[in-house]
């Protein structure tokens, strides 16, 4: 998969068909989403339609996958050429040599297509660091936190200082992170009995804690190293903040 900056002002390619590497390596797949804020102006009906488009059409799996790949590749090529905001559905279908009906059978709009690409990229990043059988354990949580920190540090190092994380990018990555954490929690024996809150709430809160801290840290507001930051985030997640609220601490003990 390739990614480019989605800004109309800066449509140059940052990486193409290259792997993501963290730490001392390079970040080859990056999306600068500074020009996609116009999606916030879509009507509620358009948003609802986009959010309900979750599964591809039925039929021959190979043909469905091939059509989706054609649409994705056409979309990425167009982003390189003209930027996200300037792309129309007609542009995508003409480049992919399919009709508009075929596009809408796969994606509600171009925002759903972008969301899919962002999610797939993040999945590849995580898969390069953690096995699919990972569980909710301090070791795997720390690796995940470090991966997210490196991910956003690389994002900001490649994007211009004026760029900000677009709400669509933020939502896609945070949702993907939450779903991953929820998968891990479901693998914990008697997880529902061990916590006084639903595991869905745990996944939601922890995903935002990791995501928010990673975004803030990657913007250069802290001199703390990635390892130190990961340890601090992990400590908050595993021990909580009960010791900072004496009344809660006394109730628990």
Question: What is the rounded distance between the termini?
Answer: 52 Å
CATH class of the largest domain: Mainly Alpha
Radius of gyration: 20 Å
What summary fits the major beta sheet? Answer: 2 strands, antiparallel
Q: Biggest sheet: strands side by side, in what order?
A: 1-2
What is the number of beta strands?
2
As a percent range, the share of helical residues equals 55-70%
Low-confidence stretches: 1-54, 160-165
Number of helical regions: 11
The name of the CATH architecture of the largest domain is Orthogonal Bundle
Give the helices and strands, then pairings.
Layout: E1 3-4, E2 13-15, H1 44-52, H2 61-82, H3 89-96, H4 100-106, H5 110-127, H6 138-158, H7 167-186, H8 191-194, H9 199-221, H10 226-239, H11 246-252
Write a structural description:
The chain contains 11 helices and 2 strands. The protein has 2 domains: 3-117, no CATH class; 118-252, Orthogonal Bundle (Tetracycline Repressor, domain 2), CATH 1.10.357. The chain starts with a strand and ends with a helix. A hairpin with an 8-residue loop joins strand 1 (3-4) and strand 2 (13-15). It is elongated, with a radius of gyration of 20 Å. Helix 2 packs across helix 3 (89-96), helix 5 (110-127) packs across helix 7 and helix 6 (138-158) crosses helix 10 (226-239). It is mainly alpha-helical. A two-stranded antiparallel ribbon has the order 1-2. The protein has helices at 44-52, 61-82, 89-96, 100-106, 110-127, 138-158, 167-186, 191-194, 199-221, 226-239, 246-252, and strands at 3-4, 13-15. The longest helix has 23 residues, at 199-221.
